[in-house]
TrEMBL record:
Protein name: Thiol-disulfide oxidoreductase DCC family protein
Species assigned in the record: Flavobacterium plantiphilum
Pfam families assigned to the protein according to its UniProt record, in alphabetical order: DCC1-like (PF04134)
Lineage: Bacteria, Pseudomonadati, Bacteroidota, Flavobacteriia, Flavobacteriales
Length: 138
């Protein structure tokens, strides 16, 4: 897919989910190597990327980590890969990969299923501040 930064990893997230918004803010604060860029799944670009990589656009209950030209990951696999990229203490979370992906995904799915009830939902996607705008793709 053209016009995507080849040297960045793209995180597609539910733009109206408060938990997802908090996770994005958490990642941005700890992305010391400037590895990640962000796209809301509901955006035009988010939908184009999902279509391009073959992910059902109706399944916006999962975070997706897309490495342009390499691969994409979703659910627990994406979360653990993101954590390992953040390094430090968060890199240790990659140790959860010792459990079968299916078990990690059951836990991930349980949280995803309840995220709106537990954390709430926005009426529209977050609009980044001018300082953060460079981290988001349009």
């Amino acid at each position: 897919m053209q016009n995507l930064p080849k040297n960045k990893k793209i995180i597609l997230f539910d733009g109206v989910c408060n938990l997802c918004d908090s996770a994005v803010q958490f990642i941005i604060k700890r992305d010391q190597k400037d590895i990640f860029r962000f796209v809301a799944l509901q955006s035009d670009l988010g939908q184009k990327i999902c279509s391009y990589i073959g992910v059902d656009q109706k399944k916006n209950d999962s975070i997706i980590l897309y490495e342009p030209g390499i691969a994409y990951y979703h659910k627990s696999e994406a979360a653990l890969k993101i954590a390992s990229e953040l390094g430090g203490f968060y890199g240790f979370l990659a140790a959860l990969n010792v459990f079968p992906k299916k078990i990690n995904d059951i836990i991930y799915d349980y949280i995803a299923k309840n995220r709106y009830r537990w954390y709430g939902k926005k009426e529209q996607c977050m609009i980044p501040t001018p300082e953060l705008k460079a981290k988001f793709l349009e």
